[in-house]
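During the practical work, I worked with a single protein chain and the tokens that describe its fold, as given directly below.
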Amino acid sequence: MTPYYFDNTRFLVAVDCIIFGFDNKQLKLLLIKRNFRPQKGKWSLVGGFLEGGESLDQAALRILYNLSGLNDIYLEQLYTYGETERDPGERVLSTAYYALIRAEDYHLPINRESTAKWFPIEKIPNLIFDHNIMVDKAMRRLRRKSLSQPIGFELLPDKFTIPQLQRLYEAIHQRELDKRNFRKKILSMGLLKKLDEKQKTGSRKGAFYYRFDIEKYNDLVSTGFHFEI
């Protein structure tokens, strides 16, 4: 490729990933302890620099795969942060992504060198640079989209109960929801397949498992259907 733009300043480009998970009780954020300067030893989002020959999306997928070993992850570009002094090391532009991971699919590495740790969303520590601002923006995006798109199902196991689903939405929005109204609303859309199997750990009677019907959802969207919680 012929080089151009000789008179323009070069910058470093980074990708930072805001990784959410749900453990059936709490919404959590996956963080790592930074092992290099500047701000070595402080908590950070998972990230890295853009490599030659890859797009931003490819860089985000690479970073997530290197950490989790997972390929099939819900990933969405959030925002690009470019304040001139956001990184004390050098001028760095960072594009943030947020990802949704099923807790059953990902387990923290047992490697002693790994510093990855899940934090409840209400107990996130002070992060490096502008990472807390990134998390706040990602939470607002997640809350907004969870009401109008079924992205919350990305955080649940393949089969789940209605109480599990309600706990997820309560964790995302940090407020209690009326049990009867939530159940009526979610079932009225006809997007859940009821299974014959029950979860028996929650109560003596047990709760039926359901699966999200993605094919039916896609068919309905093509006819003008709008998901709404």
The first helix runs from residue 56 to 68. The first strand starts at residue 12 and ends at 22. Residues 156-221 form a domain with the Arc Repressor Mutant, subunit A fold (CATH 1.10.10.10). Residues 9 and 91 are 10 Å apart (CA to CA).
